[in-house]
Amino acid sequence: MMQGLLKGKVYGAATVGERGQLVIPAELRKALNIQSGDQVMVFAKLDKKIISLMPSKDFSRFLERAEKVISKLENSLSKKN
User: Fold this and answer.
1) Could you list the pLDDT tens digit for every one of the 81 residues in the chain?
2) What is the SS3 assignment for 58-70?
3) Can you give the pTM of this predicted structure?
4) Alpha carbon separation from 69 to 12, 15, 56, 79 (Å, rounded)
5) Where does the chain show beta strands of DSSP type E?
6) Rounded to an integer, what distance in angstroms lies between the CA atom of residue 66 and that of residue 50?
7) Dist CA 74 CA 18 (whole Å)
8) How far, in Å, are 20, 37, 71 from residue 27 at the CA level?
């Protein structure tokens, strides 16, 4: 189970403050180009107790691409019918 989790790079530990705030390690912020004030999407797999973060700007691009792929699939299916 841990093998899949550790396929990426470990960027260190972070401490949750009393207000629930979490500081993302500087090296990871730099690698993902996360600036002060940027928003991140927070995902969780509760059954495995895993939390994932993704910069909102990257998630938006992912959704835009997914929308284009879905549209192409819908067009292709409607042409077959």
Assistant:
1) 455 555 778 888 899 999 999 999 999 999 999 999 999 999 999 998 888 889 999 888 889 999 999 999 998 888 876
2) HHHHHHHHHHHHH
3) 0.65
4) 36, 39, 20, 15
5) 40-45, 50-55
6) 24
7) 48
8) 21, 17, 38
